[in-house]
Amino acid sequence: MSTRLPLFPLGTVLLPGLVLPLEIFEERYRTLVRELLAQPDDHSRHFGVVAIRRGREVGPAVPALHQIGCTAVLRRVQEHPDGRFSLLTVGGRRFRIDEVDQRGAPYLLGQVEYLPDEVGDAQAAQEAIGPVQRLMRTYAERLAATGTVQISLPDLPDDPIALSYVVAAAAVTDLSERQGLLAQADAAQRLRAERALLHREVGLLGRITTIGSSELRRVDPSPN
Questions:
Q1: pLDDT tens, per residue, the chain with 224 residues
Q2: By its UniProt entry, which SUPFAM superfamilies does this protein fall under (predicted)?
Q3: What architecture (CATH level 2) is domain 2-114?
Q4: What are the boundaries of each domain within the chain?
Q5: CB-based contacts of 175: which residues, under 8 Å, 6+ apart?
Q6: Cα angle at 198 between 197 and 200, to 5 degrees?
């Protein structure tokens, strides 16, 4: 069953369970926040975050959007004297956009269908948990060893759905790869894609750190 959902296009991908702070300064989105705050039920205080495929976050032009997005659930709202809002949101449910329009609202509205979060192939998902957890820990260690990026790695859950989203959120990837992970049909397929991604990244980071160590050994420590 489809429903209408306010849409917030962003140059990032929101995942279920991921915390997303937002600064709201455009008047159309200030209107959206005020309307959400007027809702009597906390469960209805959410909007859809969808990554921009082409275009800009701000301005009158409607950007080209990816089809799969995630709801942002309001957790904390601070209104500033100048009318801006600081929001703390968390990713909720995935959805697929069937149609985008702006009828009756200053912001974009989407006719969307919510997508179920399923394990998929239970055996494949279960077999992927251990390898993905090990690869993720190795990836975090090697990333830290480069001295460029250090990710805060939470406890990795054994539940395949939760693990698939934790890894998708923690891995340092570009928008298209993260969007691809969000769009996977189920946890088994998402974990399979993450296993391939992490295996690739661990190999690349291993070569980077090995080359860096080799270069350091070539440096003559003597000042003479």
A1: 789 999 999 999 999 999 999 999 999 999 999 999 999 888 889 999 999 998 665 555 567 899 999 999 999 999 999 999 999 999 999 999 999 987 888 999 999 999 999 999 999 999 999 999 999 999 999 988 887 777 777 789 999 999 999 999 999 999 999 999 999 999 999 999 999 999 999 999 988 755 444 443 344 433 33
A2: PUA domain-like (SSF88697)
A3: Roll (2.30)
A4: 2-114, 122-218
A5: 11, 12, 13, 51
A6: 70
